[in-house]
């Protein structure tokens, strides 16, 4: 009788890839997790219970065929595992690195609920695709037949690139427009290298270009070219700009020098990793070296900022968050990594203003909080504890308070572009279609600031809708 390759979670404990020691990893921007060896990947994949209702799959926005590619990995069928993973996910090696698996697939693993420790789904996903790249199984797109229709995509982030991939596979001509000098959006300039090394993103960009996707970089819609001009060139347009407008603080002292936006700080750091000349970094403005750093916020962007500050050589790094650890929106895994690297978290702490000397920030005026009754979202609302204020010394303050959409109707001179009261674009669920004929929108510009995996799903779904629309038009024309 054949040996059972799965259901080994009782005999085999959960084992993540080895993490580099904090004393070593905080000195560079390399990824902190080592790669699984083949035997270890097979062993960890074999812990999957192959349950009848795979909650890992149903809680993945892409509904990845996780039990299938775990079984294929456990039995050494790696090329098939990659094909299965790639079938539902345009960028599995990126999701394997940056998805909050603890809140999605792994957080809903059945064996985790039974006390055996979740399957290391993210680490195996990363291993599968990295192996595929090493073995040469990842090939440029070669459509079965080329089509004359074209689609313009505004924004080269994960949503736009996922749509580009799917459209090119159908033979449609695709041009991606982006105001930056490199494709990838936040994958390239927002997420630090210790979570996502940039060659991982660039090789996907190169693969798309080799598959026939045209990139128009350093192209700012509304400035370098009008939206109407781009729209006139294509049969359909996808808006995938993301949300880049930083939420701000309006309080005493907020205009002092040394108070910076998270996106500016992270972009400068990532640009330096490419060897770019970055005036704001070289001048010291967006460089944490030798400074007491305070980061305000509790999301994943805040975690990126505190861990980047450590690597830049800050003398101290503190994170202020107005709720407690259990209620923070960021990944618990990232919080643990930050603590290991020396970051101090000041829970139940909120800024009320800033101190300065000659216009340069010297500290954050902090008010201590407690959690009261739940607010409209169901989370306990923070309340001020009177008389518990203090000043946290700081030479650099980084605001990581989240992002909002830019005013695209005004920037692009498109007053009829439908937006919500939050400024996000109104688009149909699943298809991304807007009320403007042939104009679609995907990702954060529709959802608000969200996860990369949701942007990928939106891009893929929108591409499917556009292909169906173009097919229908072609069928009518052929009659």
UniProtKB/TrEMBL annotation:
Annotated ranges, domain Dihydroprymidine dehydrogenase: 25-136
Pfam family, one: Pyr_redox_2
Keyword annotations from UniProtKB, A to Z: 4Fe-4S, Iron, Iron-sulfur, Metal-binding, Oxidoreductase
Top-level taxon: Bacteria
KW Iron (keyword) present: yes
InterPro entries: DPD_II, FAD/NAD-bd_sf, FAD/NAD-binding_dom, GltD-like, Helical_ferredxn
UniProt domain FAD/NAD(P)-binding: residue ranges: 151-459
UniProt cross-references to Gene3D superfamilies, sorted A to Z: Alpha-helical ferredoxin (1.10.1060.10), FAD/NAD(P)-binding domain (3.50.50.60)
Protein name: NAD(P)-dependent oxidoreductase
Source organism: Aliisedimentitalea scapharcae
């Amino acid at each position: 009788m054949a040996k059972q390759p799965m259901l080994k979670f009782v005999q085999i404990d959960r084992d993540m890839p080895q993490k580099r020691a904090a004393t070593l990893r905080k000195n560079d921007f390399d990824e902190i997790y080592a790669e699984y060896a083949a035997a270890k990947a097979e062993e960890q994949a074999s812990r999957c219970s192959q349950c009848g209702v795979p909650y890992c799959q149903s809680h993945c926005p892409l509904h990845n065929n996780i039990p299938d590619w775990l079984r294929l990995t456990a039995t050494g069928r790696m090329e098939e595992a990659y094909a299965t993973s790639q079938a539902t996910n345009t960028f599995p090696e990126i999701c394997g690195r940056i998805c909050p698996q603890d809140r999605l697939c792994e957080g809903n693993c059945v064996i985790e609920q039974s006390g055996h420790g979740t399957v290391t789904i993210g680490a195996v996903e990363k291993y599968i695709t990295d192996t595929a790249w090493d073995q040469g199984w990842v090939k440029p797109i070669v459509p079965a037949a080329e089509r004359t229709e074209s689609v313009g995509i505004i924004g080269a982030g994960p949503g736009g690139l996922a749509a580009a991939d799917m459209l090119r596979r159908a033979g449609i001509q695709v041009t991606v427009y982006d105001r930056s000098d490199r494709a990838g959006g936040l994958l390239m300039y927002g997420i630090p290298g210790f979570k996502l090394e940039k060659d991982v993103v660039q090789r996907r960009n190169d693969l798309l270009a080799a598959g026939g996707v045209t990139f128009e970089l350093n192209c700012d819609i509304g400035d370098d070219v009008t939206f109407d001009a781009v729209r006139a060139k294509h049969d359909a347009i996808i808006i995938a700009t993301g949300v880049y407008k930083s939420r701000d603080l309006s309080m005493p002292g907020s205009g002092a020098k040394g108070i910076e936006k998270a996106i500016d700080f992270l972009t400068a750091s990532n640009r330096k990793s490419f060897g770019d000349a970055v005036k704001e970094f070289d001048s010291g403005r967006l460089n944490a070296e030798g400074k007491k750093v305070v980061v305000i916020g509790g999301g994943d962007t805040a975690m990126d900022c505190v861990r980047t500050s450590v690597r830049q050589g800050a003398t101290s790094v503190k994170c202020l968050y107005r709720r407690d650890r259990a209620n923070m929106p960021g990944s618990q895994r990232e919080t643990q990594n930050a603590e290991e690297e020396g970051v101090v978290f000041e829970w139940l702490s909120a800024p009320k203003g800033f101190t300065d000397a000659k216009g340069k920030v010297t500290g954050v005026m902090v008010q201590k909080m407690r959690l009261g009754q739940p607010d409209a979202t169901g989370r306990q609302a923070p309340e001020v504890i009177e008389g518990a204020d203090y000043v946290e010394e700081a030479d650099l303050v980084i605001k990581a308070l989240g992002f909002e959409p830019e005013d695209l109707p005004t920037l692009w001179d498109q007053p009829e572009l439908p937006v919500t009261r939050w400024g996000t674009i109104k688009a149909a669920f699943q298809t991304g279609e807007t009320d403007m004929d042939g104009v679609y929108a995907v990702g954060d510009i529709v959802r608000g600031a969200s996860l990369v995996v949701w942007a990928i799903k939106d891009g893929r779904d929108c591409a499917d809708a556009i292909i169906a629309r173009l097919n229908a038009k072609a069928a009518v024309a052929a009659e």
